[in-house]
Amino acid sequence: MELGLRDRICVVTGASKGIGLEVSRRLVGEGARVLMVARTQDALAAAAEEVGAEWLAADVTDPDCDERIIATCAEQMGGIDVLVNNAGTSRVTALEDLTDDDWRDQLELNVMASMRLMRAAAPRMAERGWGRIVNVASSSGKRPSNTNGAYSVAKAAQLSLSRVFADAYAPLGVLVNAVTPGPVATPLWTAPGGMGEQTAALQGVTLQEALDGVGAGVPIKRLGEPGEIADVIVFLCSERSSYVTGAAWSADGGRVAIFI
Predict the structure, then answer these.
(1) CB atoms < 10 A from the CB of 113, how many?
(2) Sign of torsion over alpha carbons 205, 208, 209, 210
(3) pLDDT tens column, 102-131
(4) Domain at 9-182+225-247, CATH homologous superfamily
(5) Which terminus of the chain has a lower count of CB atoms within 10 Å, N or C?
(6) At residue 140, what are phi and psi to the nearest 5 degrees?
(7) Does the keyword NAD apply (predicted)?
(8) What is the value of pTM for the model shown?
(9) Where do the structural domains in the chain lie, given as residue ranges?
(10) Residues of the chain whose pLDDT is less than 50?
(11) Are 9 and 33 a contacting pair, CB within 8 Å?
């Protein structure tokens, strides 16, 4: 299927690994020009070379980051057509252990950083009469997780933020949607010190047993793969999603048992 992404200029945050890396790979494969953004320069540069994309090392929680990213697109690539807000992280933390800083950090990363990038990119897309924005939220934004309340609340706010921008920009040709993955076999879960090991430590089991247990709680009975989520995101970035806006697409293996 031709997705109509050839020569489109795309920005993907959190792009050095996991879902962001797979989104970048697929966009390049569709002929798009991609600017990959992440904090860790060495890992990002290696990932971009592998994929065949441009890269910019930046922390999206920096209030000046949005203008830097958009300026790079405008000056070096000629504009911006697609924005994928994928940067995010979480830790297994009980509600009573969450600090004020934990709450602020999650809101800054998932809401404020996404908002600033959309605020900078959407008007430019509107000037061109075409644009796609996809915010990578979480199933926890629909059904809060008891392992990190701050993350869940921030992801719910990100979904609301997506709808606000979707309503404002749909008449101008800019379509804004969200994707809500469930647990996915990315470094967030599988890497040393990640959520898998944190869960294993709490339960007194091995990493593999912990990951198997998380997967068993999903109706499909396994963790998602990064590429499976990326496929949904890239569709929403494409010309083929021309009548979709303001939606929160579940890509969670059926984990959230509601139609929304």
Answers:
(1) 23
(2) positive
(3) 999 999 999 999 999 999 999 999 999 999
(4) NAD(P)-binding Rossmann-like Domain (3.40.50.720)
(5) N
(6) -70, -20
(7) no
(8) 0.96
(9) 9-182+225-247, 185-223
(10) none
(11) yes
